[in-house]
Amino acid sequence: MKRSALIEKEWVLHKPIEDFVLKEVRELASNRARGLIALFKQGCETAYIARYKESVHGGLSPEKIRKAKDAYLAAVHLNSKVDSTITAITGKLVGLDEKRAVTERLKACDDIEDVSDVTKEFAPGSRRTKANIARDLGLEVPALKILNGEFVDFSSLITREMKTVRDVEENMKALVADLINKDREVRKVALQIVKLQSKVRMTVTSKLTREVEKNIETEAVKKVLERYRDVIGWTRPAYRIMSHTVSALNRGSEEGVITWKVQFSSDDVKRMHPFQYKMVHTSMQNFFKKAYSYSIDTYFVPMLERGVKRFLTKSSEERSITVFGRNVEQLFSQKGVHSKYVIALDPGSIVKAAFLEPSGKVIDMDQFSFSFRGPTFDSRGIEILKNWGTQTMGKDIVVAVGNGSNTYGTQTAVSKMIQNEEFPKEIDVCFCVVPEHGASKYSCTDAAREEFGEDVDIKLISAVSIGRRLIDPMSEYVKIEPQHLGKGQYQLSINEKSLKGKLVDVVRDRVSLIGVDLNLASEALLRNICGLNSTTAAEIVKYRMQKGRFKSRGELKNVKGIGDVSFQQCSGFLTVSRPDELDQPAKKRFKTPDGEGGWSPLDTTTVHPDHYGIAMKLISKLNLTVEQIVSGTDVSFTNLTPEEEEIIKLLQDKPDLKPPPVMMKQVRALKDLRVYETFRGTVTNTTDFGVFVDIGVEKDGMVHISHYRKNDKQPITKSSNNKTEPKSNTFVNKNDPEADLENVPSVGDQVEVIIQAIIRGNKGDRISLMPKQAEPEPQCSSFASGNR
Fold it and tell me: Molecular function (GO) terms listed (predicted)?
């Protein structure tokens, strides 16, 4: 999507805008935050900033830049909201002092919830609080005098509405309590308590809605209840509750099964409260103690409880989006398998199958039955697969098996065919597991129907999608809406709009930073390139169809809708290989039809066209060619300027792609596993509680997240019988805060793991794994340990 420069309203908040960014991204210094904000205002996208503006951000990851941009956009929205709220509320207030007080409170707001609180208090028709009633009775000035250490004679305040000193005292107590709670220092301490969750406990109780109670005996409701039975009734310190637990508790609340709340002790809160030692007039001390306690119980504690719950929920949502985003990002970063024919299988009682050329072109599609007794395919299915095996002209085959329901049975059936030599002997056949999340969603899209036609069974299209995910992962995954890719932790509990928006940004960044060939990329890929959108992507494809291949990056400017800003943002992520015309000796340089500059060897690199002049002078200075530098020739950085060093870095920059899925020839059963055996597996998901690894059996094993925390790597040793065992003196602390994701393997990574335990249970067996120290990759194995 093309981003235009943002137009901000006049800044009215007390905090400068960079403070909001610095609060979220602590790695930034103030000057770098201001530099980033300037780029955001210009409409620059994350990928462009990450690659080409390192001098501004100092080497931040795309994820941190996205976080900074989210903070910037939230601050702009907050400022706009405060500005409009000031106009709306103060226009209806009469007193000048009250207008000023409300305006100051709004300008001091840190988030939208603070604005909402003020709005509820002063908006027309808002609930008449005791404090506001006291204000209307004219008690605010004497209340402020009490807080300033002066004496106030309550008897002098008796009126027709307040007939006794007792009436005055009760009204005054409510107003003083309210003023205490609105004090800026009190709010500041409250925010600190909310973030640290010191002295906070979280309690979970059962909560059965009328609908649940009515259906308590149904199997579906019993299953829901069973999911939360272990947490009902427990109390924990809030700061030790990890984000995935908060997400699960929110899901339980939505299902009407549980409720969870945050609890504070009034005594603990008083010890942290700024007014604990407030000095007031001697004659007002007894009254002040009552007002202070009333403020703690009525305002401060409930505010903290709401704040902590809101903070935990927000943090868990952000964490879920981060984990999900990283996992999705890794799917796009996997290398494709381009040298083999692909048989793709979408498992189930009816197996959907597709036979694809190495390019991804569909040769055939079909479906057949699966027999769970074998497990094996029916005779027709075996004949279809054997027949496809004869059509590869001697090229090898890889069978891509979707990881959905019955994936293990399908893998077993393929393994039997390989072991029984049902395929031609002259070709090598292996199989692997491919994520199938979202394949069925894509099958129903207009794009799928446009490619395959209205008459094709949409169930068969999902098999094609599975196969193409192995051949060209990024090109296929980009067709699926990111929220349907199914990786992460409790992401379905998150606001769908928020999740979708953030993941679209993740996808755009990843596609851009990997880069695509301008002459080969599909429209779906192009629309996810920084600076482009669906309209400009379609125009690029249309231009290719009408004019032929692009001869240079500069020719992009001829495409309708691509102006200077779009070209600046997108051109560095679109490569153009050497035109055929330049292979002819008579033609040294190709000119595009309108005279735009011709092809440059820099068009194949990540160097931005804006820097071609500097790059060519540098290459001449080094007496090297572009091809030599790109191939990794050692370049001395002596006497190079920072800008020249950045050019060298861009010339040698290559996307960090992960290897394809593990190729296997045989599966193993869970019953055959032994404790302390070593496997090479593929990470299928990462969460804040564990890393799930496919080691080629019926289900994934899990490595507890504690194994990946800094300084908590569990050491490995050899026992007397030469089996690999963990040392007993592990230093893992399972109550640590969130794990550091830098040490956690990503989706698609191939990892060495050791079986720590096989846990039998009523809900099925579980495989507990632990990481093995890195060793050289073995070259061959017939089992699903993943060694080639």
Answer: mRNA binding; structural constituent of ribosome
